[in-house]
Specification:
heterodimer; A: 229 residues; six-stranded mixed sheet; B: 388 residues; alpha+beta; 2 domains; 12 strands
C-alpha cells in the first residue's frame, strides 16, 4: 500500500503575538491508498485547517505534510496548484459548481486547467457524468439542478482527474437525509472500487459510514479508530 | 486553459449580465463612436475642399507674374505652342469701384477669355457665366460673386439690370456661388477685351491658366514652361524668376496637412473619452472580481494556476472593450453618415480607421483589465473559498 497523505508533527498557527491561535498542534497521521477516512471534530477543532493542508490549499507552519509523496513546504504556488489538480478531488458542502457553466463544462474544467484539449476533456467529463447517472443533465447549469444532482456533478468533477484522493468537506451538510444517504452510498461504492476518500464532518452518523475515524479536538488528535463503528 | 474556452466564458457572462455589461461598455461605446464620428468629420469636411480643388483641376497650372508687367499676351501665345497643353486661358485683373443704385464698393475685377470657363468651371448661383461668343469681344457684361452682389444690395432678380464699373454701365449676366470656389469671393468677372479697355493695360496679363492633357505630365509641363518663360524674360543663372507656377498638387498637399492635423486633434479628444471608458471597465471588473471571489477560490482549488485566472479576467476585459468597440464603430459610422448628409460631404467608410479604433479599444481593455485580473489571480485559495 502506498501512502497518500502523511503528516508528521504538524502545527498550524494563525495570527501573531498575543492573539496567536494554534489551529493544529502536533498532528501525526498517515492515510494509505484505498482508505475511507472521516476526520471528525466540533467547530474550531482544526478540521478545516486539516482539510486545507490535505487539500494542498495551504502549507503547515511547522512539521511535514506530504500529499501524493510531495512535501508541501517545498512547493511554490504553481506546483502546489498542479498538485491539487492532479492529486485532489474536492467535494464541498455547498457543491461549489461554477456559475454560468453547464454540468459538462463544470466537470471538464479541471482537465481544461491541466491543458487537456477541450474535446477530449468533455468526452471524459461525459463518461464521468454517465457513471454518476447525470448524463441526461449535462447541459444544465447549477441553478437548474437539485442539491443532490449538484453534488453528483461536483463528485464527477472530483473524480474526472483520477485523483489520489477525494477530499469531501461536509458533503451531505446541505442535503436532506435521503439525498445525503445516497451520496454516502456513492462514496462507499467508489471506495469499494479502490478510491481513497477523506471525509471532513462534524456529523457522527455520517462519520460512522467511514472505515476509519480520526477525531480532532483543540488541534490535537484525540482518537483514531478503525473498523465499522 | 484554452483561450477559446475563456473567451466563450466571457461572452456567456456578458450575456448573463446584460445590463451591467452594457453599462460597462457604454464608456467604450461612446469613446469609439466619437472617435469614428469626429475623425470622419475632419476627413469628410476637408476632403470636400480637396474635391473642389480637384474639380479646379489637377491638370491645371497657374502662372502668375510677380509684377503687373511680368506676363504678356505674347507669353500666352508661345505657351500655346508647347506640347502637352490643351487649353491656355488668360486673365487680367484690376480694381474698380462698382456701384448699383443702392450701394457701391471697391472690388477686384477679373477679365477672362473664353477658355476660362472650361478651365475653371465656375459654379453659377443664378444666371450664367460670361457667354462664349462675347467673352473675346468687348461686351460690357459682368458676373458678380455672391458676396459682391450682397454688398451691392442686389438680389437674384438683378440679372439683366445694370451696374456701374467706374463710370461705365455693365449688364449683370450671372451671380456666382461663392461657397463652391476659391478666391472668387469679392470678385467680379468681365470679358478680357473689355477689361483691357476699362481696368487693365494691354498687353500685360495677371495670370495664365494652363490645362495639360493629363495629370501625369504636369511636372514635365511645369519644367518646360519655366524654361520657356525664363528664356523669354531673359532670366539666367541665379536671378529670381518674375513669375510663379503653381499646380493643384501643392494646394492639395497643404489641405492634406490640415486634414491630418484636424484628424489628430479631434481623434485625440475622442481618445480621452475612450480612456475614461477604460477606467469604467476597470471599476466594474474590480467589483466583479470581489463578487466572484468564491468562484475564483473554486477555480484555484480545482487546479487553476494564477496565470490562468489572470488570463480569464483579462480576456473578459478585452471582450467587454472589444464588443463595446464594435458597437461603437457601428453607431459611429451611422452618426458619421448622417453628419456627412448634413454637411454635404462624401461619407467615406475607412477600414483602417475602423481597425485602429478596434485595436485601440482592445488596447484599453488590456491596460485597464490588468489590475483587476492581477487582483483576481493573487487571491489566496483558502480565503477565497471561505468568502461569503
Amino acid at each position: 500500500m502506498s501512502t497518500v497523505v502523511e503528516m508528521l508533527n504538524v502545527t498550524k498557527t494563525f495570527g501573531e503575538g498575543s492573539s496567536i491561535v494554534k489551529a493544529l498542534d502536533g498532528v501525526d497521521i498517515r492515510i494509505e491508498k484505498g482508505e475511507f477516512v472521516a476526520i471528525v471534530g466540533a467547530s474550531g477543532s482544526g478540521k478545516s485547517t486539516m482539510m486545507n493542508l490535505i487539500g494542498c490549499l495551504d502549507r503547515p507552519t511547522t512539521g511535514l505534510v506530504k500529499v501524493a509523496g510531495e512535501d508541501l513546504s517545498n512547493l511554490n504556488d504553481k506546483k502546489l496548484t498542479s498538485l491539487r489538480n492532479y492529486a485532489i478531488g474536492f467535494v464541498f458542502q455547498s457543491f461549489f459548481l461554477l456559475p454560468k457553466t453547464d454540468a459538462l463544462d463544470n466537470v471538464a474544467t479541471p482537465l481544461f486547467y491541466r491543458g487537456v484539449p477541450a474535446k477530449e476533456a468533455r468526452k471524459k467529463a461525459m463518461e464521468m457524468l454517465s457513471k454518476l447517472g447525470m448524463a441526461d443533465r449535462y447541459t444544465h447549469q447549477s441553478t437548474e439542478l437539485s442539491g443532490g444532482q449538484q453534488q453528483r456533478v461536483a463528485i464527477a468533477r472530483a473524480l474526472v482527474t483520477q485523483p489520489s484522493l477525494i477530499l469531501a468537506d461536509e458533503p451531505t451538510g446541505a442535503l436532506d437525509s435521503t439525498t445525503g444517504k445516497q451520496v454516502m452510498d456513492l462514496f462507499e461504492n467508489l471506495n469499494r472500487e479502490g478510491i481513497t476518500i477523506v471525509l471532513i464532518t462534524h456529523d457522527l452518523e455520517i462519520a460512522k459510514r467511514a472505515k476509519r475515524r480520526i477525531t480532532l479536538k483543540d488541534g490535537k488528535i484525540i482518537n483514531d479508530e478503525r473498523g465499522a463503528a | 486553459m484554452n483561450i477559446l474556452i475563456a473567451a466563450r466564458l466571457a461572452f456567456s457572462r456578458i450575456l448573463a449580465t446584460k445590463t451591467r455589461s452594457g453599462l460597462t461598455m457604454l464608456g467604450i461605446i461612446i469613446g469609439v463612436m466619437s472617435l469614428i464620428a469626429l475623425v470622419s468629420v475632419a476627413q469628410g469636411a476637408t476632403s470636400g475642399i480637396q474635391d473642389q480643388f480637384k474639380g479646379l483641376g489637377a491638370r491645371n497650372l497657374n502662372i502668375t507674374g510677380t509684377t503687373s508687367t511680368s506676363l504678356t499676351i505674347d507669353d500666352a501665345r508661345e505657351i500655346e505652342k508647347e506640347p502637352g497643353i490643351e487649353i491656355v486661358s488668360e486673365t487680367v485683373s484690376g480694381r474698380a469701384t462698382l456701384s448699383s443704385n443702392q450701394a457701391s464698393t471697391r472690388a477686384q475685377i477679373v477679365g477672362v477669355d473664353s477658355d476660362y470657363k472650361s478651365v475653371v468651371d465656375p459654379d453659377i448661383f443664378v444666371g450664367s457665366f460670361l457667354p462664349d461668343v462675347e467673352t473675346a469681344s468687348d461686351a460690357r457684361l459682368i458676373v458678380l460673386s455672391t458676396t459682391l452682389a450682397t454688398d451691392l444690395e442686389l438680389d437674384a432678380f438683378s440679372i439683366g439690370s445694370t451696374i456701374a464699373v467706374g463710370s461705365t454701365e455693365f449688364t449683370i449676366v450671372g451671380i456666382l456661388d461663392d461657397a463652391d470656389g476659391f478666391g472668387t469671393r469679392g470678385t467680379a468677372y468681365i470679358p478680357l477685351e473689355t477689361a483691357f479697355k476699362y481696368v487693365a493695360v494691354p498687353p500685360y496679363l495677371s495670370s495664365i491658366t494652363v490645362q495639360t492633357i493629363n495629370e501625369e505630365i504636369v511636372p514635365e509641363v511645369t519644367a518646360n514652361l519655366t524654361a520657356l518663360l525664363k528664356a523669354r524674360h531673359n532670366i539666367t543663372g541665379e536671378r529670381e524668376a518674375d513669375f510663379v507656377i503653381t499646380d493643384a498638387s501643392q494646394l492639395l498637399d497643404a489641405i492634406g496637412t490640415v486634414q491630418q492635423f484636424l484628424s489628430l486633434l479631434l481623434g485625440g479628444i475622442a481618445s480621452i473619452s475612450l480612456v475614461v471608458g477604460g477606467i469604467g471597465i476597470m471599476n466594474i471588473m474590480l467589483v466583479s472580481v470581489r463578487e466572484r471571489t468564491r468562484e475564483i477560490g473554486i477555480r484555484r482549488a480545482i487546479g487553476a494556476q494564477q496565470s490562468q485566472i489572470l488570463t480569464q479576467f483579462l480576456i473578459e476585459a478585452i471582450v467587454l472593450s472589444l464588443v463595446g468597440g464594435i458597437i461603437g464603430v457601428i453607431i459611429g459610422e451611422i452618426v458619421a453618415y448622417f453628419l456627412a448628409q448634413l454637411g454635404e460631404w462624401n461619407f467615406v467608410l475607412s477600414p483602417s480607421m475602423i481597425l485602429a479604433s478596434l485595436g485601440f479599444s482592445m488596447f484599453v481593455g488590456v491596460v485597464f483589465g490588468v489590475w483587476p485580473a492581477r487582483t483576481a489571480s493573487k487571491l489566496k485559495p483558502v480565503e477565497a473559498l471561505r468568502f461569503e
